[in-house]
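hiii so um. not sure if this is the right channel but i have a protein structure encoded as tokens and i wanna go backwards to a sequence. like what aa goes where. can anyone help
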């Protein structure tokens, strides 16, 4: 039973570390998630910090590393021109510590 709990913990722990390496696609049909970039943090579902290293992009907290190819990405995003098309509304912050989910009901989209 103890081994089973350890395995479950590892599996769920690994789910939390996924989907923070993203690639921006040009076509909406290629996207896993459609995002809209808000002008203010208060409008956003997720506040995103663009990491300079893929090692920084852990957990599902809004720390994103943009990859140079779709093969390295865990999620492909398409940036919509209006909020109505988007699955998630994001706001880019310049401070790593501001990255957070403001609407946790959409958190599953980035796993």
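sure thing!! here u go:
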């Amino acid at each position: 039973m103890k081994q089973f709990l350890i395995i479950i913990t590892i599996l769920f722990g690994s789910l939390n570390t996924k989907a923070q390496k993203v690639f921006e696609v040009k076509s909406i049909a290629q996207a896993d998630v459609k995002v809209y970039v808000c002008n203010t943090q208060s409008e956003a579902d997720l506040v995103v910090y663009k990491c300079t290293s893929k090692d920084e992009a852990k957990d599902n907290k809004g720390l994103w590393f943009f990859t140079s190819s779709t093969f390295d990405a865990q999620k492909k995003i398409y940036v919509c021109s209006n909020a109505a098309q988007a699955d998630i509304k994001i706001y880019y912050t310049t401070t790593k510590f501001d990255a957070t989910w403001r609407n946790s009901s959409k958190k599953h989209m980035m796993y």
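oh and Confidence is low (pLDDT under 50) at residues 4-18.
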